[in-house]
Here is the input.
Amino acid sequence: MATVAAVIASTHHPFYYRASTSTGADRPPFADEWVVKIEAFRQTLTRAEPDVLVMVGSDHFHQLWLDNMPQFLVGKAPFFDANWYNEEREFGLPRMRLAGEEELAGYLLREGLDAGFDLAFSNELRIDHSVTCPIITLRPQADLPVVPVYTNIFAPPMPRPERFVQLGRAIRGMVESWPQDKRVAIIGTGHLSLELGGPRQFGPHGPDPEFDRKAVTWIANGDVDGCLAEVTLDSLHSPGNATHGFMDFMLMMGAAGDGVKADYVDTLDLFHTMEAYFTWYPQGAPS
Amino acid sequence: MSKYLLDKFLYTVDRDAELVERYRDDPAGTVDWWEREMANTVLNCRPEEKSTWLSFTEHERQALREHDHVTLFHLGAHPFLTLTLFIAMFERDHGPLEYQRAYARAMEHIQLPYPDIAT
Here is the structure.
């Protein structure tokens, strides 16, 4: 059976690539501290020695559109080209190509469907920065095969937060029952409080530092019940109009396990948003 | 109210570098052309397999023609789509993050709950 080598939850900040690679006058003042934090976070994945990455993210109206919108979708293909024209334009992201792990993708689809998750699939998926940002931060050599899992945190009506937690638990269980002797890291990215295209965007901090503080505590402690007691589809409008991306963090809490404290927690208070990085080692921390 | 069509306009223009420039330079002409030629195109289908029923209200048409991101927000256009396209068109005329902050300031009178963006 496969081993869950690590469960990792992170924000995906599309400005990291440009900030970390810029030099001279173009380099923002927060870049050096950010790079130090990311390189430490990267070590938490490197130490887990994964063979395969399950990557949970969300298409930002690139390939998935309102005429045909899945709630949860698994990418099953030998390769995934990545990043889009408007991400090159706005964030300077490079074009990338990742290998796919089709057998695990097929396994997640079959087992997921049988477990009551009506997962959509794609055999030709161009992935976006919700998946490539964590590749850039955590595995910049981009040398491992991936299974992308897309969630709808963007286009209402969306599944409720409970459903994200349930899917996270299910993904964890399915990976553990995959009959291959492989080490799998489950990596998912979302947001804390975030406003895009509204009056609270691009402030000196995230739009709701109090929500961010609570969210980091929920995640770090694996406090699924505490989180679900406060977070609903309606409540997520209040911390910022793009805060439904927090449901991907909730999915990862489900994957990490109820009440399981993260082995690694770090944050960085940036303008516009708070960055947050979490790693769990279900088999115990590697030496 | 055709929030879906507003979103479709923003989405299809934003993903096409030539259309981004055309909408920046000639908003009224681009909106009129797009509504006439593109609004009823089903994106993953052959051009002749068109829809037959999609059009803007005059209020929506006017907001698009005037690059009026505040009215688009009030109309329930998806804020991510509006922001991404407007950054592509106008960030170049400003210093770092100046445009994004001015975009927010123009909306600071807007209180929660924000307009519903469900389509």
Notes: Residues 135 and 142 of chain A are 6 Å apart (CA to CA). The mean pLDDT of chain A is 97. The beta strands of chain A are 3-11, 52-57, 72-75, 79-82, 96-99, 120-122, 146-151, 183-190, 264-269, 274-280. The two ends of chain A are 22 Å apart (CA to CA).
